[in-house]
Structures are given as C-alpha cells and as structure tokens.
TrEMBL record:
Stated name of the protein: Protein BREAST CANCER SUSCEPTIBILITY 2 homolog A
Record domain Breast cancer type 2 susceptibility protein helical: where: 113-183
Biological-process GO terms, alphabetical: double-strand break repair via homologous recombination; regulation of DNA-templated transcription
Region feature (Disordered): 22-42
Database matches in CDD domains: BRCA2DBD_OB1 (cd04493)
Organism expressing this protein natively: Prunus dulcis
Length: 389
C-alpha cells in the first residue's frame, strides 16, 4: 500500500451545499486547479428551466409563417411516438444529418417547431440577431439535438422524453451564445479553421457521419489522388469538418471498426485545401482533415471533445496506467507502428544496453579494421611515438 501525502480530493460532479465556500455557487461543476468553469462543457445551473407553454410556443411561431407547419395526418402522432420513430428508424438513428431536420410537436400535436423557431426564441431571450443568424442557429441546433437524442437512447427506459425537449434545446443554445458571443470562446475546429490553432495538435473528435467509403484494396497513391477516397465527418460538438482517411484507416472503416459516434484521439493531422482563415459556417467541402493511422487512436467514450491541454501530462498518465495494467492507446509501441501509416507523433523508448565505443580504420589496401577504445588508444600512442622519432 502506498500512503498518500494529501487527503483525497472530492471528485464529485457537483459541489454540494454542505461542502462549498461562500464564493462558489450551488450546482457548479468543480474543476481541480481552476478558478473558473471550463469552456465548452454544459454546466448544471441551479436556476429553473424555461417552461415553454403552449401560448408561448404559438406566439413565437406567429413571428414567422415558415415555422408554422401543419403536420400531415399520416404522421400526426403523439410526442412520444414521434420521438421514438425518429430514434429507432433503421439506418438513420445514429446520423447527425437527421438532427438538423428534427421537428418538435407542440402540446396540441398539430404544429411543428424546427430550427427556425429557435432563432426567434433566442431573440426573445435577448440575443442579438447579428450573431444568431439562421446558419448559426441551424448548426448548433443540429448538434444539440443530436446530443440530446443520444441521451434519450441511452436512458430510454428510465427517463424517456426528459432530455430532447424544447426547453432543454433552448437552454443549450443560450449557453452556446453565452460562451461563444459574450465570452469569445471557440471550439477546437473553429480555432483550427480560423488559423489560430495548429491542425497537428492533439484533439479528440467524434465521427458524426460517413461521407463516402471507397474500396479498401485501393493502393495508397491512387487513393490519395482519387476524389472518391473514404471520407468521414468529424465534430467537436460545436462545429464539424470533413476528414479524408488514408488506406489503412479506410480498411478500418470498411471493416466496421470506425463507426458513427466513435471518438478519436487525433495527433499530427494535416489540413488540406485551406487557403486562409475561414468561418466553420462558410468553409468549403474541399477543406478537409487528412488523417493517418499512426496518428489516430480510439478514444474513451467519456473523453471530452476538443484539444488535449498538455501532451506531457497525457503521456505521464498513460505511463502510470500502463504500469497499473490498464493500458492506453498512445504513445505507439513499435509493434503498432504501421508502414505507410504516416509519421508517428509520439512513442516511448527504453535503453536496455549501452554498447562500448568502437573505432573503424580503413587501410590503404581497401580493408578495414575495427578496434575497441582500449586498442584505439594504444594505436594512437604508438603512432605518436613513431612521429617523435
């Protein structure tokens, strides 16, 4: 047993009212070594959620006739049935492209509420319209709905219908407006596309869609030049970018080892087709990440999306976990390095033996003689003695 020099630190998700000081607020997530809440993580606030009544939703929809869509009688079902149908639809339940088109039903079950309605909801909440454009709201609405729908699928039996609600989506959009507009915080993909961060930095991203899947037996050179190479969509939870896979990663995708919803720890990626700073909402499809298998690892499902703060700390934690028998995905061992899989961002080496210094002398007849350090010193001494006489 190893005795700890310090008492155990409270690692609970929230700070309880009985163990917090006067400067902390109830329900704020504790961050060790930090004096403020870490960005891009939804805090559990103590204030009550906004209750969107029927009259409130109708008043919002009257602001735009485009939002006030009458659902056809063939799909006019209760809220629970509509949500279950969307989440359990074969081949579509895991893809983020469906989240952008998701529509809420009001209490009457007659009117649908989509992304455009939340533009007016944010305006009623005090957001400036110049920052909450339709593209901005649609983008974040897509990722918020996708996240909350995943929560619904994970807790389908216990808390069905408690996550993917109008009030929760509005709270998430207001939180993102507060972080991005008022505080100026930017996610990993936004910083990379705007030229303020290197694409080769270690970052954790999630596969949100599979754009194309080419033949895994295609050669590496032809695959790189082929426009139909395997592509996936990666997201940091706020924005997304397409990524082109190399030959070995394409084989992993074809075999099902890369799938939608999987988190990847990427290190040493390259940004192709990028000419200068560009907004994630205006980026062209030609701007892509180029991933290679030696710098792409499977991340834990609970790893936070975004940049890894300190690579050295991560390597140290990996070493400690490997000594404890838990293992980790990086740094790469020599038997995991793939030929043609790109540069190896990091690996660990152990010195097992130090060989003595050897000296090699090439003779006039073309032959060579290898001597140890002791014999070399003797030959140098005899040569100096001959030079003196």
């Amino acid at each position: 047993m190893v005795s700890l020099a310090k008492p155990l630190v409270d690692i609970s998700n929230t700070v309880g009212t009985t163990a917090m000081n006067s400067t902390q607020k109830s329900g704020v997530k504790r961050r060790l070594g930090r004096s403020s809440i870490s960005p891009f993580k939804k805090p559990r606030t103590s204030n009550s959620p906004i209750h969107c009544t029927r009259m409130f939703l109708l008043s919002v929809m009257l602001l735009s006739h485009q939002v006030c869509l009458l659902c056809p009688p063939t799909i006019r079902v209760p809220k629970e049935g509509f949500l279950l149908d969307i989440l359990s639809r074969p081949g579509e339940k895991n893809y983020s492209s469906n989240a952008e088109k998701y529509m809420f039903l009001d209490e009457s079950g007659l009117n649908c509420i989509g992304a455009e309605a939340f533009v007016h909801m944010l305006a009623c909440s005090g957001a400036l319209m110049q920052y909450t454009s339709r593209e901005w709201v649609t983008n974040h609405y897509k990722w918020v709905v996708w996240k909350l729908a995943c929560y619904e699928r994970c807790h389908l039996a216990k808390s069905f219908g408690n996550f993917l609600t109008v009030s929760n989506v509005l709270e998430e959009l207001k939180y993102r407006y507060e972080r991005e507009v008022n505080h100026g915080h930017r996610s990993a993909i936004k910083r990379i596309l705007e030229g303020d961060a290197s694409p080769s930095s270690m970052v954790v991203l999630c596969i949100s869609a599979i754009r194309s899947n080419c033949d895994p037996n295609m050669e590496t050179s032809s695959r790189a030049e082929n426009s139909g190479a395997a592509k996936v969509e990666l997201t940091d939870g706020w924005y997304s970018v397409d990524a082109v896979l190399d030959a070995l990663l394409s084989k992993q995708l074809a075999s099902g080892k890369l799938f939608v919803g999987q988190k990847l720890r990427i290190w040493g990626a390259a940004l192709c087709g990028w000419a200068g700073p560009v907004s994630p909402l205006e980026v062209a499809r030609t701007v892509t990440f180029r991933l290679h298998i030696n710098g792409t690892y499977r991340a834990h499902w609970a790893d936070r999306l975004g940049f890894c703060k300190n690579h050295l700390v991560y390597i140290r934690l990996w070493y400690i976990s490997s000594r404890a028998g838990k293992g980790a995905g990086a740094p790469l061992a020599f038997n995991c390095v793939k030929s043609g899989g790109g540069a190896v961002p990091c690996t660990l080496l152990g010195v097992t033996r130090i060989y003595p210094v050897l000296y090699k002398e090439r003779l006039s007849n073309g032959r060579s003689v290898v001597r140890s350090e002791r014999l070399e010193s003797q030959m140098v001494q005899s040569y100096q003695e001959r030079c003196l006489f």
